[in-house]
Automatic annotation (TrEMBL):
<keyword id="KW-0547">Nucleotide-binding</keyword>
<dbReference type="InterPro" id="IPR004562">
    <property type="entry name" value="LipoylTrfase_LipoateP_Ligase"/>
</dbReference>
<dbReference type="GO" id="GO:0005524">
    <property type="term" value="F:ATP binding"/>
</dbReference>
<comment type="pathway">
    <text>Protein modification; protein lipoylation via exogenous pathway; protein N(6)-(lipoyl)lysine from lipoate: step 2/2.</text>
</comment>
<dbReference type="InterPro" id="IPR004143">
    <property type="entry name" value="BPL_LPL_catalytic"/>
</dbReference>
<feature type="domain" description="BPL/LPL catalytic">
    <location>
        <begin position="29"/>
        <end position="216"/>
    </location>
</feature>
<dbReference type="InterPro" id="IPR019491">
    <property type="entry name" value="Lipoate_protein_ligase_C"/>
</dbReference>
<protein>
    <recommendedName>
        <fullName>lipoate--protein ligase</fullName>
        <ecNumber>6.3.1.20</ecNumber>
    </recommendedName>
</protein>
<keyword id="KW-0067">ATP-binding</keyword>
<dbReference type="Pfam" id="PF21948">
    <property type="entry name" value="LplA-B_cat"/>
</dbReference>
<comment type="pathway">
    <text>Protein modification; protein lipoylation via exogenous pathway; protein N(6)-(lipoyl)lysine from lipoate: step 1/2.</text>
</comment>
<dbReference type="GO" id="GO:0017118">
    <property type="term" value="F:lipoyltransferase activity"/>
</dbReference>
<keyword id="KW-0436">Ligase</keyword>
<dbReference type="GO" id="GO:0016979">
    <property type="term" value="F:lipoate-protein ligase activity"/>
</dbReference>
<keyword id="KW-0614">Plasmid</keyword>
<dbReference type="GO" id="GO:0005737">
    <property type="term" value="C:cytoplasm"/>
</dbReference>
<dbReference type="InterPro" id="IPR045864">
    <property type="entry name" value="aa-tRNA-synth_II/BPL/LPL"/>
</dbReference>
């Protein structure tokens, strides 16, 4: 991001407020480049298409008073505490066909390398230092704007990260590592010269925003709208947990682009209800597609016709149309 970068802070550690703040900036500040740095205290943030109850360790979450909130981007569930720093880039999406994670992860990787760390982007959406995951990223589109955000595990409590999340054993079936704890790392432990979180925050702000940084703030009127969005959406059970009706058929498949789980109800041969869950890296809401599928005959070629009308890469990340169909119509 060259030229002026508007730098914003939420002034809060409340995850419901912070996600409302971020969404408000994406949907209302529709010109210019923005950088947000923010923190959530003691929170699990689930991806927009995940089944929340399946992702969290409910007794652990309740015992440790951990907030649970859904974000509006794809990917998997993550744990945030005050040893973790979140960043958000909001800017013009440009050519949608050429959308790439690298455009946004590269500046973060370079910032970490500037601290003498062996940082690299890896896999679908991770940043690693010496083979350990220190960051997970996700993005979403809004009109011609894009939000890209990520975590930075600086000095997080690894036991809390491991305890709060319900880990799907399938994810580790093909890997030699068997636990979340052994896969993640803290940036601070890799530093040659120690720094604390305020120093890291200041460094990141200067490095990511560059010389064109403009300190910005939302107006009182805008902040009132953030509060309203928090109350209407992020505070609600419907958004964070959502409906989990009983389906006639459920299927789950693991693809290179992520896990895809589908639930379908069929009456008289027609789809009456359908839901897609998973940690795939969608950048757009699945709602238009799921609505379009209602009333469609539950046959591969009919569902395929509906899918052809939608940008599958935006909705399912690296999972292809054929893979969506194979999941739905698996034997």
């Amino acid at each position: 991001m060259q030229h002026a970068v508007h730098y914003l802070e939420t002034g809060s550690r409340d995850p419901y407020y912070n996600l409302a703040f971020e969404e408000y900036v994406l949907t209302h500040r529709t010109r210019g480049d923005y950088l947000l740095l923010w923190q959530n205290d003691n929170t699990i943030v689930v991806g927009q298409n995940q089944n929340t109850e399946a992702e969290i360790n409910r007794p652990f979450v309740e015992a440790h008073h951990i907030h649970v909130v859904r974000r509006s981007t794809g990917g998997g569930a993550v744990y945030h505490d005050l040893g973790n720093l979140n960043y958000s880039f909001i800017t013009d999406a440009g050519d949608r066909a050429a959308l790439s994670m690298a455009r946004f992860t590269q500046p973060v990787v370079e910032a970490l390398q500037g601290l003498g760390l062996q940082a690299e982007a890896s896999g679908r959406n991770d940043i690693l230092v010496e083979g350990r995951k220190v960051s997970g990223t996700a993005q979403r589109l809004w009109g011609d704007r894009i939000l890209h955000h990520g975590t930075l595990l600086f000095d997080a409590n690894a036991d809390m990260v491991a305890g709060a999340l319900q880990v799907d054993p399938e994810k580790f079936r093909s890997k030699s590592t068997k636990s979340v704890r052994s896969r993640i790392g803290n940036i601070r432990s890799f530093l040659k010269q120690d720094m604390d979180m305020p120093a890291f925050w200041a460094y990141l702000k200067e490095t990511l925003a560059g010389s064109g940084m403009v300190f910005d703030a939302l107006t009182a009127q805008e902040l009132a709208q953030v509060d309203a969005l928090k109350a209407e959406k992020y505070d609600t059970w419907e958004w964070n947990y959502g409906r989990s009706p009983r389906f006639d058929m459920t299927a789950k498949r693991y693809w290179d682009g992520g896990c895809l789980e589908v639930g379908v109800s069929v009456s008289r041969g027609l789809i009456t209800d359908v839901i897609f869950h998973g940690d795939f890296l969608s950048v757009s809401s699945l709602e238009p597609l799921t609505k379009a599928l209602l009333g469609t005959p539950f046959r591969r070629e009919e569902v395929c016709r509906v899918l052809e009308r939608y940008p599958v890469a935006d909705l399912f990340g690296g999972i292809t149309r054929e893979q969506v169909l194979d999941t739905l119509f698996s034997d």
